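User: Please run a holo structure prediction.
Assistant: Happy to. Please share the sequence and the ligand.
User: Here you go; the ligand is glutamic acid.
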Amino acid sequence: MSGAPPVGRFAPSTTGRAHPGTLLAALLCWLDARSRGARVVLRLEDLDPDRCRPELATGMREDLAWLGLDWDAVTLQSAQRLHHEAALDQLAAAGVLYPCRCSRADLRKHAQRAPDGGFRYPGTCRSRALPATGWRNSKDSLRVRLARGELRLRDESGLDLSQDPSAGFGDPVVRRRDGAIAYHLASVVDDASAGVTRIVRGRDLATTTATQIRIQQQLGLAAPTYRHHFLLMEERGGKLAKLHGAVDTSTLRSEMSASALVGFLAWAAGLRPTEAATTPAELLPAFEWNHVQPTDRKVTWTSPKLTLCDDAARRPRSA
Ligand code: GLU
C-alpha cells in the first residue's frame, strides 16, 4: 500500500440548484473523507452546455459552504479540457474510438433496455472508422469500443455491481456531437488526475460504475474504491422518485437554518436518534458507515419542514 493519504471527491452537476438529496450526498462524502483524514475535493461538473450555467456552479459552492462543508480544492470540470482531449487521443491511438450517427430515436427504435432503465446502444456504428485527419475533425458523436466481458465487482458497502458494461449499456458516448466531453470519460479522467482514491456517491449512479471501471482499464488508470449510499425519495405519480424538484436550496435556505437541515439529514441517515440541530463538524467524531441507513428514505417537503414518512420513521428508536 502506498503511504499517500486517501482522496475523496464530491462531483455535483451544475445543472440546477442543490436539493436535499445533493446536500445529503455532499454531507456523507465529506464525513467519509474527513473521518479518515482524507483530502476531499469539490469538482463542479459543468460540461453540459445546454444545462450548466456559471451562476449555478457559484450557487452550488455557496450552498455547500452554507451547510458547513469545506474542501481542500475546488475545480471546474470545464477547466480540464486538455486532460479530456489527451484521453481521447489515447483511445484513438488504441483504435477504440469511433464516430456514431445514431440519434436517441434510433436507440429507442432498437428498444434494448439498459440496467438503469434507459436504452442500450446496440453497436450500430461500432465498425466505423474515425476521419483520417483525426477525431477532432469528426462532426459525429464519438463512442469508445468497450472491451467485452463480465466485470465482477462489489462496492465497499457490499453492493453487487457485477456487469458486462458492453452488453448492459453498450459503448458509451465520450464526446458529444456538439463537442462537449461526456460524463463517463470526464469523470474517470478527472478522478485520476486529482488522485481520487475514494468515490462516495448515491445509489442512483451504481449501475454506471462498471462502465467507468472498464474505461479506466482501457486508459490504464487505477480504479478508486467505490461506495454507494441510500437516496432520499419522494412520492410522485404513485411511484417513488429521487427527491428532486419538490424543494431546492434557495427555498430551504430561506425557511430552515443550516443546523436544522444537517440535523434532519443526519437523523434520516441514521446517524442521530433525533433531528435536533447539529453541524457537520459535530457529526465527525462518531461517524461510521455501519450506522448509516442502508435503504432509501421517503421524505416530503411541506413548507417549512422536511418530514420522513416511511415505516422506519414511525418505529421508535432508542437514543
Ligand atoms: N455529476 C454527477 C451527478 O451529479 C455525479 C458524478 C459522480 O459522482 O460520479 O449526478
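Residues 108 and 188 are 27 Å apart (CA to CA).
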